[in-house]
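Exercise 7 asks you to align residues with tokens for two separate proteins.
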Amino acid sequence: MLDALAPIQAAVWLFFAALALWFGGRTERLATGVLLLGWLVTLSAYVDVDQLSRASVSPIILVCDSLQLMVFVVLAYRSGCAWMTWASAFFAIVVLVQIVSMLDVRILNVGYVAVQTAASFGIMACLVFGAFRSRYLWRREGLGAAEG
């Protein structure tokens, strides 16, 4: 069932990314760019497996997501924005689920994919919120959108 929804999920996720890139400040644009680059790496390393089999995590994907998490933590620290902190927390869930899936053989692929999907939409929701808030502050107070 999740395979049938994958194109719809990808379209919605890319729509959210476009919103964050279009309306966001420097922080949201940088974070969204990192996410899109990571998505391309993940697509190149992804292996399709049966939904009811054991979840298998590629070390390439784990390293890529760990590097993205570090970028998100640095952006959250430097920007001081609450939504970047929340986005970093959602990204930490993504990385932790990958680590747990590598260590515990009882986790099925369907559960792994469901958690990854929910956390990735949480990340995008935080970035879109930050983008619209940045745009609102830019219009209301005359601040530059690039100051983010």
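Second protein for Exercise 7:
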Amino acid sequence: MNQDFVFDLKNLNEYRLHLQAGELASPHGQTRVTLYGSGDLEAEQLFGEKEEPEVRKPIRVKGRIENAEDLFRQLAKFDWQSKFPSRPGIPDEAIIIWTVEFQGKVIATLKMWLGEAEKDDRVDAVLKRLRDVIGDLSDNQIYI
């Protein structure tokens, strides 16, 4: 369902961004973020079963991001048509999955390597903003 979408500012509260990065089984776990058009934000870092004796508990935070409409405008600039790169991943490189919903329906999905996200100025701008807000909310315990 990769398609470009037109951001409708009048219906900002009907949008939702979901971001998933990493894997449960990786040492850094999996980060999940939901940003609502209202600016409300939820983030969590989850950890799967590990061989180490200690059990890492999930980390969850909620907060708010100012000017969420700017992030959704930036999301509309992503190349939602691009295919997942066929190159092998760098060891421990996370895969990021971006999903945008409008009125509860998925309107765009994009899967990419973290390295690709950081090289694309359109994507990196959103990633940096989310990292800053989530880092502040979680005392740098949750990282994308």
